[in-house]
């Protein structure tokens, strides 16, 4: 899967495509979450599962401009968790700070929603930390709102 979108602001072409194993270092560099310790091992597991597995329910997309990866989004279809019908879950998203406000995140989100729909999902879900105003605002602007399930946790 590869789709191109002309960037009306800068006359550059934004390409959204399936991630490849060779994208590992670029994705690692874009991940601004958490501590550096363990991050490489975590991303290796994610790449093994989502990039190399060939499962039609797993989706790992990257966006690139001029051959450089500038963003990524990861999601999958999950089913029957606590009686939930199959739904799409987006659990990782990042766009290079230098390339934000170009619509890249929105285009990747639209593309992964299309992929998840083709995999049988009628609903898309994600979880966002309450204090992460940027990500929360992004997903709300994409039309996501509070769902029917409540996250509970225990330390």
From TrEMBL:
Domain (N-acetyltransferase): give its ranges: 14-155
Family matches, as CDD domains: NAT_SF
Coiled-coil residue spans: none
Q: Which SUPFAM superfamilies does the UniProt entry name for this protein? A: Acyl-CoA N-acyltransferases (Nat) (SSF55729)
The protein's superkingdom reads Bacteria
Q: Which residue spans traverse the membrane?
A: none
Any one GO molecular-function label of the UniProt entry = acyltransferase activity, transferring groups other than amino-acyl groups
- Name assigned to this protein: N-acetyltransferase domain-containing protein
Q: Which organism is it from?
A: Geobacter hydrogenophilus
The organism's taxonomic lineage, starting at the top:
Bacteria, Pseudomonadati, Thermodesulfobacteriota, Desulfuromonadia, Geobacterales
């Amino acid at each position: 899967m590869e789709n191109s979108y002309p960037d009306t602001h800068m006359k550059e072409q934004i390409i959204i495509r399936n991630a490849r194993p060779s994208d590992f270092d670029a994705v690692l560099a874009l991940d601004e979450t958490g501590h550096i310790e363990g991050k490489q091992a975590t991303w290796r597991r994610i790449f093994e599962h989502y990039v190399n597995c060939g499962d039609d329910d797993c989706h790992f997309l990257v966006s690139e401009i001029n051959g450089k990866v500038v963003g990524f989004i990861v999601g999958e279809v999950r089913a029957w968790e606590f009686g939930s019908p199959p739904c799409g879950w987006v659990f990782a998203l990042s766009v290079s700070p230098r390339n934000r406000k170009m619509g890249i995140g929105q285009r990747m989100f639209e593309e992964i929603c299309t992929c998840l729909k083709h995999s049988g999902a009628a609903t898309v879900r994600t979880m966002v930390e309450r204090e992460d105003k940027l990500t929360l605002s992004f997903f709300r602007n994409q039309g996501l709102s509070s769902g029917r399930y409540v996250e509970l946790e225990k330390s």
